Amino acid sequence: MSKTILIVDDSLSIRQLVKAALTSQGYGVIDACDGVDALNKLTGQRVNLIISDVNMPNMDGITFLKTLKTKPEHKFTPVVMLTTESQDSKKKEGQAAGARAWIVKPFQPPQLLAAVEKLLM
């Protein structure tokens, strides 16, 4: 059974790039344009991993992560932050909120896939 991954990013081109990399490896993909959209799409939906941007309108990635982790069904869902943010303070905030990996854009698809595979093992 293929694993399902949720991509949360306000950039359509990033969502398409990540989706192409993931689907080429056989993953199922759901995409959302911000944290609010992502939470709506997660209702009753089982996902194995989430890849989220940090800077987004409506609900940013850190707020989304904190909200996600309050839900029992997603408490242990691994989350990868894929963002232009590279400051340690942001990374620490992300880790404190529950992020398991932090990848800085621009990224290489193999780098992302390696992180995804590691977290899904």
Automatic annotation (TrEMBL):
InterPro entries cross-referenced by the UniProt entry: Bact_response_regulator, CheY-like_superfamily, Sig_transdc_resp-reg_receiver
SMART domains the record matches: REC (SM00448)
Residue positions where 4-aspartylphosphate is found in the record: 53
Pfam families associated with the record: Response_reg
Domain Response regulatory: 4-120
Coiled coil spans: none
Keywords: Phosphoprotein
PROSITE patterns: RESPONSE_REGULATORY
Gene3D superfamilies the record matches: 3.40.50.2300
Name this protein carries in UniProt: Response regulator
Organism per entry: Pseudaeromonas sharmana
